[in-house]
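Hey L., structure's done. Input below.
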Amino acid sequence: VGVGMIRARFAARVGLTDLDPPHSLKLSGSGNSPMGSATGSAKVRFVELDNGHTRLEYVYDAAVSGKVAAVGGRMLQSASKVIIGQIFTRLAQRLTGAPVRTGLWQRLLGLFGKGGTQ
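Output:
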């Protein structure tokens, strides 16, 4: 994960609690690195719409400490929104069976038969 000039690899733990299938769940996680630590949780709801689709709603809370937190609130807030958006985009893709899009590098490797997904 990178925020500004600070880059760190976090050892993360993620878990699901408060399961109420197929309506809601709580997603919680924490991560540690030499650059700091992070914790977060999200209450996720699946709302059935009249057109047969399901809307994924979530409310999250996150906290960071250490050098990562020293980068500045605005930068950190923007980075966390991007990461959280990626998490829920991937979750929605998995739930709908839509293809999971990967980064440019993984797609190029996939084209050359070196792994990755297209």
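The beta strands are 2-3, 6-7, 11-20, 24-33, 36-48, 54-66. The chain has one domain: 2-111.

-- N.
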